[in-house]
Amino acid sequence: MFVHKDRVVLLGDAAAGFLPTAGIGASMAMESAAVLAEELSRTDRTYLHWALSLYQKRRQKRVEKAQNDSRQLAKYMFVKSEVWAKLRNKLLKYYSIKNMAKGIDKSFQEPI
């Protein structure tokens, strides 16, 4: 994840792209913008590099986890085997939307 060099800062897909099937690229970009604004508000030009390093440190783990989660999701969405696709579709009938939403909600409860 490349985030900053000198006075150039990247966020969103420019810093860490996501598969479009995950539907989380925009929310990760907004989170990153909020964290960047928070770190910049705590500093001045003298310590800008430190603030940008803190920004990257705060975002790295969460963004990488979201990227990995989106890759895992894609594996289940885009299966090559027709048999596996039919099995997946049958199993999903028994997995409620409420249960699916719990996983998403859990990720939003984590601090950014």
TrEMBL record:
Its EC number is 1.14.13.24. Keywords: Monooxygenase, Oxidoreductase. SUPFAM superfamilies: FAD/NAD(P)-binding domain (SSF51905). GO terms for molecular function: 3-hydroxybenzoate 6-monooxygenase activity; FAD binding. It is an enzyme of class 1 (oxidoreductase). The keyword Oxidoreductase applies. PANTHER family: MONOOXYGENASE, PUTATIVE (AFU_ORTHOLOGUE AFUA_6G14510)-RELATED. This is 3-hydroxybenzoate 6-hydroxylase 1. It comes from Legionella clemsonensis. The lineage of its organism: Bacteria, Pseudomonadati, Pseudomonadota, Gammaproteobacteria, Legionellales. The gene is xlnD_2.
